[in-house]
Amino acid sequence: MARRKKLPSGVRKKNGRYTYRYDVYVIENGKSRRKQKETPSFSTPEEAYETGVLIKAQQITGTYVDEKNLTFSEWSDKWVEIYSNLGRSDNTIKTKASKLNVLKKEFGGFKLKDITSLQYQEYLFRLKKEGKKKNTLLGMHSAMRSVVKAAANQPYKIIANDFTEGIVFPEYKETLIELKSKKNKKVNYLEKEELSLFIKTAYELPDCHEYAETEKDSLVLRQYARVLHILAFTGLRIGELCSLEKEDIDYENKQINVIKNLYYQDGIESFTLGPPKNETSIREVDMTNKVVQLFKDQEFELKKLKLMLGLDVIYKNHDFIFINGVRKPGYPLSPLAVNAYMKNVLEKAELPKSLTPHKLRHTYTSLSAEAGIDLSSIQRQLGHADDEITKTIYLHVTKAKRKSDIEKLEELMSSVE
Question: Transferase among the record's keywords (predicted)?
Fold first, then answer.
């Protein structure tokens, strides 16, 4: 009678197929315990054993991921729940959730770990072929990238690989109408002389009786003037500036540490501090000597303002640099209040009322380009790696500068025979 061939260590036979059994460690109720798992089944014991050896090697080197069996739909819902607790605005959350709902129609029932790069790549190409607009597809791809990247990285690590990594986004050629529209599109920002008038007017309003009846009113309004001044001179977003606390200002190195953003929906008392807009928004913003002085002036006047408001009623959970001095003393300054103040400044200075605090970033881009600062440095200061408006402003300003340089060259060369 022939002896039955011994199976390799760890290999099990069931219903004519072979699996490899291995141990993983899981945390339950705060305690670590060993749990046995098995590989998918194979037709030969050698295949099962080779897969098991690979898993063992990954466990030894720390590269093994105990992939979970969550479907794309289940993980998407969980991710939206996590994302909504990071302080993102309701509109941002709704937009992401809306894009994911579309993606769930295609991938919802698949286990996240089983979706392949080829499957997703072909899906994007198919949508483009079906006539999906570029911006729609970009939004969906952005949502998919966010969800899958979170699943593949710490602290969740529920899949071993990010299947969106290296995906080629479908190419869209711009139509003639789009090219003409792009060329004729005007981006609003203040020229140097206009900015000078804007800032001068911003500091005049706190002394006008129609805006400020008391010294406390003047102190509150001078905050707004400094905010507008700093926004134009640094390129900060209004939410980033209003979230700043004393510890975020590095006077020695003349830098602002941007690590958070202000979010709120139902009044400033419901504010939350969450991560900035994206990863590139976490940065150190350089300050000129003028901006350094503006922050020091604000700290000095803030002490006076707090005394007038009453130290016993001041909100003390955060040490904000710019504070609400009206309804909620000590709470962060409201971006909506800054926007309202800016409208008064624009009206008084007879400047375009379409400008907003956010568009002062465009002014910063324009002045930086005129000063000869390269595009990558401007983008780094603004906190985004790629932005079409920034490029448009930069090219517009540098184009005018190049034309001026050519005229200077022509003047110089005119004396050469």
Answer: no
Question: CA-to-CA distance for 409 and 66, rounded, in angstroms?
Answer: 66
How far is 32 from 28, CA to CA, in rounded Å?
Answer: 6
Reference 357, options 262, 290, 256; nearest CA is 262
The Cα–Cα gap between 13 and 43 comes to: 10
Average confidence score pLDDT of the chain: 85
Q: Tens digit of pLDDT for each residue in 14-53?
A: 888 999 888 876 555 656 577 788 888 889 988 888 888 8
Which residue type sits at 71? T
The answer to whether residues 154 and 206 belong to one domain is no
Residue ranges of the chain whose pLDDT lies below 50: none
Contact 210, 285 (CB under 8 A): no
- pTM greater than 0.90: no
CATH code for the domain in which residue 84 is found:
1.10.150.130
3-class DSSP state of 374 = coil
Helix or strand (DSSP H, E) at 355: none
Domain span at 86: 72-168
